[in-house]
Amino acid sequence: MNTNILIVGVGGQGTLLASVLLGNLALKYGYDVKLSEVHGMAQRGGSVVTHVKISDKKVGSPLIEEGEADIILAFESLEAYRWLPYLRKGGSMYVNTQQILPMPVIMGNAEYPQDIEKVLGDNAGNLKAFDALSIAEDAGSDKAVNIVLLGAASSALPFSEEAWMEVIEENVKSKFIEMNKFAFIKGQQA
Amino acid sequence: MSAEKTEKKIMLGNEAFARGAWESGVKVVSSYPGTPSTEVTETLAKYDGIHVEWAPNEKVGVETAMGASLGGARALSCMKHVGLNVAADPFYTAAYTGVNGGFVVLVADDNGCHSSQNEQDSRFHGRSAGVPVLEPADAQECKDFMKLAYDISEKYDTVVLMRSNTRISHSRGVVALGEKTEHELIPYEKNPQKYVAMPAMARKLHVAQEERLEQIAADSCEWEINDVQMSDNQSIGIITSGICYQYAKEALPDASFLKLGIVNPLPKNLIKDFASNVDKLYVIEEGMPFIEEQIRSWGVAVAGGKDMFTIQGEYTANGIREAFGEDPAEVGIHTEDAPGRPPLLCSGCPHRGLFYVLSKLKTRVFGDIGCYTLSALPPLAAMDTTLCMGASIGMAHGFEMATADKENTVAVLGDSTFLHSGITGLINMSYNGAKGTVIILDNRITGMTGHQQNPATGKNIRGEEAPMVDLGEICRACGVKHVVEIDPFDIDDLEKVIKEETSRDELSVIITKRPCALIVKQPNVPYEVTDSCKNCRMCMKIGCPAIEMKDDRPFIVAERCVGCDLCARVCPFDAIRCAKATNN
Question: What ipTM does the predicted assembly reach?
Answer without folding.
Answer: 0.96
